[in-house]
């Protein structure tokens, strides 16, 4: 590992009759560590592919100042792989005003992650956001041995990498109840009956489906597991009563649950959008239509979610069944057209 040898000569600029170094000009500080992580994840492979790139050009590519770039390079001097011998760190240095990065030989081939390692990275990638997050998740899944990918899929849905919820929020109470295996009492609004009910539930796991968070757990009164949309849960009371943990088969079903209160919704998609729609998770092909269109079905989604999906395709899709979902879509179209009426 070689430390940066020297910083590039500071470029002098004139501002208001006074001269000051470009490297010391005031710039907004990037306090969010996610910004730095995004920058570094781009910086390293780009510098490897472009050896000797000028500091100024690399900073412009990273969307930061030269000072911020040099601070990132100093930070990267501490990055390496176990057992952290001197030659296990990044070989990085600045010579003149040019940057050179040489990866350790262990980076010469894609790593083989365990499913838990890959799932943790996938959850972090989703939390970071950005256009390439789904490609990153797919690459992580492909890095897992084939016989462990089902386990990876389950773990990805159960790991949440965002900011922790407030302890007394609905989500915070449910997370605590799941971890401690405590029965909860829910005040839950039933969309099918249009009424609120209270019930005791053994909370098993939380999952995100089609734009909504769900609690999946056993309803002892009905004798079967059910899914509860969290935006329909008004109140949660964590009791002192304990329950036995669910079996692996029960948790495996949690990845495949459908909203028990709604029928599958069908969407007619035109030829411009059918390829994209078929690539989306949860959308299943029902029938191919003439001229390249298709009828697709989605289970476990709300009328609101499918309406937003259809409208996002710019007139190339419509909700066709069931009748309630079709009416919801038609009403949304009517309201949208009224906004643009002259």
Question: In words, what does this structure look like?
Answer:
The chain is an alpha+beta fold. The chain folds into four domains: about 10-110, Orthogonal Bundle (Arc Repressor Mutant, subunit A); about 115-160, no CATH class; about 170-255, SH3 type barrels (Roll), CATH 2.30.30; about 265-340, Alpha-Beta Plaits (2-Layer Sandwich), CATH 3.30.70. The chain is about 35% helix and about 25% strand. The protein has helices at about 35-50, 55-60, 65-75, 115-130, 135-145, 150-160, 170-180, 250-255, 275-280, 305-310, 325-340, and strands spanning about 10-15, 20, 55, 90-95, 100, 180-190, 195-210, 210-220, 225-230, 235-240, 265-270, 285-290, 295-300, 315-320. The strands form four sheets. It has a five-stranded antiparallel beta sheet with strand order 9-8-7-6-10, covered by helices on one side. A four-stranded antiparallel beta sheet has the order 12-13-11-14. A three-stranded antiparallel beta sheet has the order 3-5-4. It is globular, with a radius of gyration of 26 Å. The N and C termini lie far apart (about 65 Å). Mean pLDDT is about 75; it is low at about 1-30 and about 255-260.
Write the layout of secondary structure elements.
Layout: E1 12-15, E2 18-21, H1 33-49, E3 53-54, H2 55-62, H3 66-76, E4 91-95, E5 98-102, H4 115-128, H5 133-143, H6 149-158, H7 170-180, E6 182-190, E7 195-209, E8 212-219, E9 224-229, E10 233-242, H8 248-254, E11 265-269, H9 274-278, E12 283-288, E13 294-298, H10 303-312, E14 317-321, H11 323-340
Helix pairs in contact: 2-3, 4-5, 4-6, 10-11
